[in-house]
Amino acid sequence: MKPRDWFALTGFLAASFAASAIGGLATASSVTTWFPTIAKPAWNPPSAVFAPVWTILYIFMSIAAWRVWRHRENPALRPAVRALLIAHFLQLILNTAWSLLFFGLRRPDLAFIDIVALLAALFWIQVRLSRIDRPAAMLWTPYLLWVTFATALNFSIWHLNQ
Question: What is the annotated signal peptide range for this record (predicted)?
């Protein structure tokens, strides 16, 4: 790998973990104050599960985006690569917005609207990743599955706390 490749991978990781940090700031106080007091379904995972899962997911999504970026010089793939990279950064915004809405504003209803949009974006990305880079699509799959689960969990929490 060239130094430029390492720099790009570092950039994708930095963008993902910046999104994570912003979301974490919104989440920090609510996790210990508001969240323990609201009704949750029996299948809500223990709090200790979230940080390690998200760490792995941010690493996987960064590597997937980086793998797509490496196809940027292929003229046949250039438009698809550009669209996927734009979608990647838009999904990071939706991902961060979810934390701000759910934990920061304590609005599971608004967070549900956001996560549905996020899930749609992730499906769109998954389909296109599978056409450009199969390993990237495989790296993206756990994120898609986790957000599918999180969408159901968000809906359940919203419903239980109306």
Answer: 1-21
